Amino acid sequence: MRDLDETDLEILSLLAEDARRPFSEIGDRVGLSGPAVSDRVTRLEETGVIKRFTVDVDRTKLRAGVPVLVDVELPVGAESTDGSNTLDAARERVRDADAVEHQFVTAEGDLRVYARVEGRNVREWVVGLFEGVGVEDYTVTLVDEFEWTPSIEGVEFALTCAECSNTVDSEGETARIDGEVYHFCCPSCLSQFRERYQRLEEGA
């Protein structure tokens, strides 16, 4: 597997700014033809660096609710009413909430949520969201402006071995098995993975 070079990183940066940017335009910026850029993007998709292309919707244009930051304090090691870990239960609730756009877990094990709450009392929404989870406390901050700027430069992309979870470097192996692309740190891990995969298929 080949390491990402400066051209790959520049292509990623340009796509992060605008995923619909034409390959011909990207080629003009990086000194390649449009088809050559397309080949590189395809390789980045196959190796898992690019997972999907998406749309960044400006919800302020849609009048999609009040933007808020919610800082949630969770008791360490406690359990929710259903017996699950409190943090896991809170994250599951947040993941299923339509109003939530981003969630972050702090080093202290607390939860921060960015959401757009539509036409209702924000505190009532928060109470309903975490009902039964066992939240210690929370604070709600109204957001005046929000901007997310993706950064590619200076980032090292580290793929992990599908067999042993070690980092895959330029000496690693990449294989397509049943239509899925897997990465391995060495030929031995690839061989072990293939054998285990085959045994699982035969036992199915």
From TrEMBL:
Signal peptide positions are none
- A Pfam family of this chain: TRASH_HVO_1752_C
**Gene Ontology molecular-function annotations:** sequence-specific DNA binding
Q: Where is the HTH asnC-type domain?
A: 4-67
The family database entries (InterPro entries) matched by this protein are listed as: ArsR-like_HTH, AsnC-type_HTH_dom, HTH-Siroheme_Decarb, TRASH_dom, TRASH_HVO_1752, Tscrpt_reg_AsnC-like, Tscrpt_reg_HTH_AsnC-type_CS, WH-like_DNA-bd_sf
The organism's place on the tree of life at top rank: Archaea
Xref: SMART domains: HTH_ASNC, TRASH
Q: Please verify whether the record's keywords include Transcription.
A: yes
Q: Keyword set for this entry?
A: DNA-binding, Transcription, Transcription regulation
Which protein are we looking at?
Answer: Transcriptional regulator, AsnC family
